[in-house]
Amino acid sequence: MRRFVVAFTALCVGGVLAGCGGGGKGMSTAQVTGTVTYLQSQTLPDNAEIHVVLEDLSQQGMPEGVLAEQSIPAAGKSVPIPFALDYDPKGVDENRAYSIRAEIRVDGETRYMSGQSYPVLTHGAGSTADVVVMAVQRKESASLPLVGTYWKLTSLGGKHIIAVGDAKREPHLTLVTEMTRAVATGGCNQLVAGYVLSGRNAIRFSEFASTRMNCPDVMEQEHALETALVATKAYRIGGTRLDLMDGDGTVVARFEAATPEED
């Protein structure tokens, strides 16, 4: 027993065991705390993430300039969103300036960011910061024309379409200018309908006709496409995506611009 006590004491003195009494040389830490707020009346999606950074302004944008950072999932949180950054005070130079920077990201894309400096730690600044982030202006790609574009069907009523076999057609929709006719397929039969454009993004389909091939694996999908076209009252194009919507603004069918498949 005496040998065990002596050995244990020796380990503590040698610094081999962590937590064997005071006087350890572990890194001391301090905190910068605060909140992140955005002013837009929008709800953050569940996959949004708040990213907060404590940085040395003289090395801003460089890895060595970051003293601490924290990523906070936005799911279930409302503004103001609190943060707490642990940092090593030994890394702070009183002659330098430090600041808090914050971003809100969705799928890795920055949607909000702080537009001003929030000084902390030195030159009379404290250890708290209430950061306001503003929406980032997103550059939208030029939208494609509704008529004449080959629109590949990607979902119906929020459900992804099923894959089609080699002998079947790719589900799609094309509006033909000269004939004011829409040609579509859910994967097997060809559907032809008239269409009328009126007002702002208003569209109606009518005069439906279809071939009558029997394709059991996609018949339900084809019927759903025809039902969606009948229900369509408006459309929306964003970049390469086309949404068809019913009278309540619900997306009933979604398409993506594509290159027509070869027969």
How would you describe the shape?
elongated
Helix content: under 10%
Radius of gyration: 30 Å
Question: Which residue ranges are poorly predicted, with pLDDT under 50 across at least 5 consecutive positions?
Answer: 1-25
Describe the structure.
- With 263 residues, this protein is mainly beta.
- It is 10% helix and 43% strand.
- It is built from two helices and 17 strands.
- Strands 9, 10, 11, 12, 13, 14, 15, 16 and 17 form a nine-stranded antiparallel β-sheet that branches.
- The protein starts with a helix and ends in a 6-residue tail after the last strand.
- Residues 1-25 have low confidence and may be disordered.
List the helices and strands and how they pair.
Elements (H helix, E strand, L loop, with lengths): L1 H13 L15 E9 L9 E9 L9 E8 L7 E7 L10 E9 L2 E6 L3 E3 L7 E8 L15 E6 L2 E2 L11 E5 L4 E5 L4 E9 L3 E9 L8 H13 L2 E5 L2 E5 L5 E7 L6
Parallel strand pairs: 1-8
Antiparallel strand pairs: 1-4, 2-3, 2-5, 5-6, 5-7, 6-8, 9-10, 9-11, 9-17, 11-12, 12-13, 13-14, 15-16, 16-17
Notable features of this structure?
single chain; 263 residues; mainly beta; 9-stranded antiparallel sheet; 8-stranded mixed sheet; 2 helices; elongated
Give a short summary of the structure.
The chain is mainly beta and 263 residues long. The protein has helices at residues 2-14, 219-231; strands spanning 30-38, 48-56, 66-73, 81-87, 98-106, 109-114, 118-120, 128-135, 151-156, 159-160, 172-176, 181-185, 190-198, 202-210, 234-238, 241-245, 251-257.
